[in-house]
Structure prediction request, 498 residues.
Amino acid sequence: MTSPHFKSRSAPPKASAMVEALRGLGYNVQTALADIIDNSIAAGASEVRLQFHWDEDRSRISCLDNGRGMSAAELDRAMRLGERNPLEQRSSADLGRFGMGLKTASFSQCRRLTVATVGSNGLQTLRWDLDFLAASADDGWHLLEGSHPGSEIHIETLSDWDHGTLVLWELLDRVVTKGSTSKDFLNIADSVEQHLGMVFHRYLEGSRPRLRIFLNDHPVKPWDPFMSGHPGKPFNPPAFKHPTASGVTAECHVLPHKDRLSAMEFDSLAGPEGWTAQQGFYVYRNERLLVAGSWLGLGSGRSWTKDEAHRLARIRLDIPNSADADWKIDIRKSTARPPVYLRTWLTTLAEETRSRARRAFAHRGKPTLLGKTQIIEAWRAEKLASGIRYRIDPEHPAVRAVLDDAGAMLPQIKAMLRVIEETVPVQRIWIDTAENKDTPSTGFDQTPSDEILGYLTTLYRVYVTKKGYSPAAARAHLRVTEPFHAFPSLVDSLPDII
Prediction:
């Protein structure tokens, strides 16, 4: 079969127009520098040094690594746009995909990008200057050799190195804007430090980390979203592996409630965006964090939103870089959408984690289970077609004791309990919880021990003198009765003789 003949013409984009358009991909300084460090990791760097130098409109940011560097040919390819096809098969350890990150991340923040590297051909330097492109009469793609006149001093560090690469941003028009001050610049640096500590925390962790990052000579500390190993976590099962999708694993975490953390731990665990914003899935590709807290559009019926009740839920999700297309990973490596074949599995894991997180939040971190024994709770939730209704459980020992001894007062007591049930200030509790970002104090929280012991002794006497329990059996029952289950030492102090 003869192929049809098509007329064609060359239609190259105008360099200045195309580059200006690429500046709007949506990077911020944090995500842009994370993209630059990806290249350092790919080059085998064990150390990366970032410098934020304030000099008003001459301010600059540099990223220096001790990776293997590039040859002249490799640097030329690295500085070209669209040199690598994202459909090419990559190394399983590759953090890139589009071959655009160095340029697009840099253009998003500065108008002059210089890359100097020491590899097999010694020191090599190339630069893009967007002002030069804009002034060019032929709209060509003019990749300039050497550093900008007057900027040579900024790459002198590499002159004595055997290998390494320096990325230099100058003319920071998207970072230093009209009215910017040195304080604003340093605040951005602080945000970058937090972001990098989160994105690369698995590289930075341990007594012998694979990577060290310094920002203005201060080490960037890793931020572990899951507080691995903390004894106060109510839920942290082993990792789940997807039965058919190779390389996809999930770890479900419910973090300790505020009441189980020190003030320093609580502030640290909040993360760069705060407790509520940091809930959800954490998606990693080759241990590099792509998405930091999102429910990924999943949900039962409708997509879940971030709320206070589920702030303790975080799920670590590892995917291979071979699944980039399935997950719709974007150039900035900051968004990901789960493929259809994983959504049911992920939803099931998330539902269980969210349920446990909700209980931990509602009970302020106090246990609702002792081994396999269910705690006897005073309230129960009834799910009806019209919604959820809360009822006092008449079988709770404290309630049952009063009902059994009520006699002629029974109708009045039942009427009182019904009034309490029908007037639970649900909306007020919900608003107060949202405003205070914590559940109201319950369960004898901050109540003196002698006062709790007084109520406990009253119920203990009912068990022993009226219900026929032995002292040991009465204590065993109280250990699993809300709210006394949270005070086992007080229960154990009850005497054998009343």
Summary: Residues 340-362 form the longest helix (23 residues).
